[in-house]
């Protein structure tokens, strides 16, 4: 008798876990994958089945432990999960729903719940009532006001309660249709939120003869890992071919060592201190760009250009940080992870993470893959051609960003030793670095670099596909094309990994190629160049590289010894690093490109140091630090920043 009752409690737990797992997956993933497959990552069926089986196992254990109070314990766990969330809306709404559900369950157990409401406490309706309203208010309308989010969640909850009341009096087919309709409506709303934002072409007509402009940003690609800059591995053969009809800048430097500050400088022509969109001691992930400085997209739109952007970095190059202001068409959608749970309100998000570690599955990607970016960018070209307007198109490829997840054929391209895949290695090293205990073994360094180089090769092949698409549309020769990167990456160099921590060359020296309209010959420019000047190049459609070569570091992901801002000044192969605290450093990049030997105390370099110090002092006098703009980021954006490793 006892054994039968124990198995019955286990069966109750399995039923509840199965209902919850199905409802969560259908609500968060299935409909969006069917309706928008281009933003979904590959589906791992064995992993998905293992996750579902793990749900059932946990449900059985919970049923045997909780026994008659199974649903109350389930509701309590759901509320406990919400309490630790960043989003206050999710936290408070969940607790309110859990109190309502707990009251209903207690009334049912005491026989005081009206018969027509009994369905509201069965596993399916209980799961729907807890998950769907939060999906409506927490995911579909996360960018809207708290009033809109609460209204959406309340409407979803009301519909579910109505279905529970009407379920015994309507045919099952009608009830099922109601559930499907609810999920479909929410999915369409989510698709609208994640769909590209298009305000349409400008009303003003463009002057005749304006060239098209394309800017390609290879997120996190350092110059010395490009074969077009002498790297031993063939990471950028297609860009090398492109360079035969373009100018290669041998010594180009990003304005900073992170995506937000670097792109803001490209688009405004201001250094990070002036535009203010960089990490601070209070806002480690960065302050959004204020509305004061005009962006290059706004300027070109005013000239009649069709301004369009397709970005893999959906955080910093999405709407919340303001860098993409002026782009009439902005496609910065996030990839939909189909198996690891990504929903901040998901009770069982820890279970998929446990299994992904056990099965050595890759973590969620940092953004949409390069092939998708290329396809969507060519669609933008077709759109602009149909409108018969000159276009300014910005592309951002993020595949080289940690955790370095190139497609399989590129992942094995530079990994001849067959090192075992470890998708969490970069994140573990970043955490060790922040804690001040970083150690990178030669094997770990080699593995991360092999995957990083494979990702660069994948970006290179995707850029080749885009350029071939331009040629096929007869839009290549007369287009100004810029290929560059926003910052580099460290792999144990100077005791650092990742980026956003120093002003050494591995984090700020980047590739830069510029093909002017009608250019067919190759040129190489040896002088140091700042990406701050890209603003002038794009605006004037000519070489306007005249800004001092200065790069600013505002560490946000650094060990204790690097947690202070600093600036690097580079002139004729000599580099001075001026930290806000500590001793300056001086390097001769011509004989010491790895910046191993600090020559600041050498009399041989006294004149060079004095010149750089004077240049820095004059530059600093001209800077007008930006007033703090909007420094509030919604909790969901913070959660996405955390998922990409920008917050720890």
Mean pLDDT: 85
What is the subunit organization of this protein?
Answer: single chain
- What's the end-to-end separation, in Å? 51 Å
Total tally of structural domains = 2
| The CATH superfamily title of the largest domain | Alkaline Phosphatase, subunit A
Write down how many β-strands occur, each being a DSSP E stretch of 2 or more residues. 16
- Uncertain ranges: none
**Structural class category:** alpha/beta
Helix content: 40-55%
Main β sheet profile: 10 strands, mixed
* Total of helices: 20
The CATH topology label of the largest domain is: Alkaline Phosphatase, subunit A
Q: What is the CATH top level name of the largest domain?
A: Alpha Beta
Beta-strand portion reads 5-15%
Rg, nearest Å: 27 Å
In one word, what is the shape? globular
Architecture (CATH level 2) name of the largest domain: 3-Layer(aba) Sandwich
Explain this structure.
The structure is a single chain. With 648 residues, this protein is an alpha/beta fold. It has 2 domains: 2-194, no CATH class; 212-336 and 369-408 and 447-643, Alkaline Phosphatase, subunit A, CATH 3.40.720. It is 45% helix and 12% strand. It is built from 20 helices and 16 strands. It has helices spanning 2-35, 45-66, 70-83, 88-109, 123-140, 146-166, 172-194, 237-242, 259-268, 272-275, 296-302, 350-358, 370-387, 408-411, 425-434, 442-472, 505-508, 534-540, 606-622, 635-643; strands at residues 197-198, 212-218, 247-253, 306-311, 329-331, 391-397, 479-484, 490-491, 497-498, 509-510, 512-515, 523-530, 550-553, 566-571, 574-579, 585-588. Strands 1, 2, 3, 4, 5, 6, 7, 10, 11 and 12 form a 10-stranded mixed beta sheet that branches. A 4-stranded antiparallel beta sheet has the order 13-14-15-16, covered by helices on one side. A two-stranded antiparallel ribbon has the order 8-9. A hairpin with a 5-residue loop joins β8 and β9 (497-498). The longest helix is centred in the N-terminal third of the chain and has 34 residues, at 2-35. The chain starts with a helix and ends in a 5-residue tail after the last helix. The relative contact order is 0.12. The model has no long low-confidence stretch (mean pLDDT 85).
């Amino acid at each position: 008798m006892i054994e039968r009752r124990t198995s019955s409690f286990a069966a109750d737990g399995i039923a509840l876990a199965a209902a919850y797992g199905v409802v969560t997956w259908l609500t968060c993933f299935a409909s969006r994958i069917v309706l928008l497959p281009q933003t979904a990552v590959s589906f791992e069926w064995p992993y998905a089945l293992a996750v579902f089986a793990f749900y059932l196992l946990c449900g059985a254990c919970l049923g045997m432990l909780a026994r008659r109070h199974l649903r109350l314990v389930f509701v309590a766990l759901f509320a406990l999960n919400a309490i630790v969330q960043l989003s206050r809306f999710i936290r408070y709404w969940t607790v309110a729903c859990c109190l309502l559900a707990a009251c209903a369950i207690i009334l049912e157990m005491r026989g005081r719940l009206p018969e027509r409401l009994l369905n509201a406490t069965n596993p399916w309706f209980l799961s729907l009532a807890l998950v769907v309203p939060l999906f409506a208010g927490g995911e579909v309308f996360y960018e809207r006001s708290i009033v809109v989010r609460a209204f959406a969640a309340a409407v979803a909850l009301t519909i579910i309660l109505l279905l529970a009341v009407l379920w015994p009096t309507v045919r099952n087919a009608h009830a099922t249709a109601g559930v499907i309709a609810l999920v479909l409506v929410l999915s369409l709303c989510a698709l609208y939120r994640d769909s590209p934002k298009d305000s349409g072409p400008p009303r003003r007509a463009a002057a005749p003869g304006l060239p098209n402009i394309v800017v390609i940003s290879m997120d996190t690609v350092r110059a010395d890992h490009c074969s077009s800059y002498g790297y031993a591995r063939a990471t950028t053969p297609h860009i090398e071919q492109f360079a035969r009809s373009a100018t290669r800048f041998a010594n180009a430097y990003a304005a900073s060592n992170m995506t937000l500050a670097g792109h803001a400088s490209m688009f405004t022509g201001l250094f990070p201190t002036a535009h203010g969109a960089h990490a601070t001691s209070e806002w480690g992930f960065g302050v959004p760009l204020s509305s004061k400085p005009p962006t290059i997209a706004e300027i070109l739109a005013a000239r009649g250009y069709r301004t369009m952007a397709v970005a893999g970095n959906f955080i910093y190059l999405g709407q919340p940080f303001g860098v993409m202001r002026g782009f009439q068409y902005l496609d910065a959608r996030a990839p939909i992870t189909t198996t690891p749970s990504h929903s901040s309100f998901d009770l069982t998000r820890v279970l998929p993470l446990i299994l992904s570690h056990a099965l050595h599955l890759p973590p969620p990607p940092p953004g949409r893959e390069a092939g998708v970016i290329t396809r969507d960018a060519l669609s933008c070209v077709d759109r602009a051609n149909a409108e018969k307007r000159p276009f300014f198109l910005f592309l951002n490829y993020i595949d080289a960003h940690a955790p370095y997840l190139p497609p399989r054929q590129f992942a094995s391209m530079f990994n001849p030793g067959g090192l075992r895949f470890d998708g969490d290695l970069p994140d573990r090293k970043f955490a060790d670095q922040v804690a001040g205990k970083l150690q990178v073994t030669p094997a770990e360094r080699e593995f991360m670099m092999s995957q990083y180089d494979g990702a660069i090769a994948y970006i290179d092949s995707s850029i080749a596909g885009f350029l071939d698409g331009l040629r096929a549309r007869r839009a290549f020769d007369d287009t100004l094309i810029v290929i560059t990167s926003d910052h580099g990456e460290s792999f144990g160099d100077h005791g650092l990994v990742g980026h956003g921590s120093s002003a050494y060359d591995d984090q700020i020296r980047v590739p830069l190629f510029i093909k002017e309209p009608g250019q067919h010959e190759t040129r190489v420019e040896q002088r140091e160049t700042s990406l701050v000047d890209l603003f002038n190049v794009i605006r004037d459609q000519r070489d306007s590289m005249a800004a001092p070569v200065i790069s600013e570091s505002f560490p946000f992901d650094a060990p204790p010894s690097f947690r202070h801002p600093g600036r690097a000044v580079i002139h004729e192969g000599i580099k001075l690093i001026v930290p806000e605290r500590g001793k300056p450093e001086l390097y001769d990049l011509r004989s010491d490109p790895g910046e191993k030997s600090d020559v600041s105390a050498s009399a041989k370099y006294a004149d060079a140091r004095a010149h750089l110090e004077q240049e820095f002092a004059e530059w600093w006098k001209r800077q007008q630090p930006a007033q703090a703009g909007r420094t509030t980021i919604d909790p969901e954006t913070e959660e996405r920043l955390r998922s990409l490793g920008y917050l720890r």
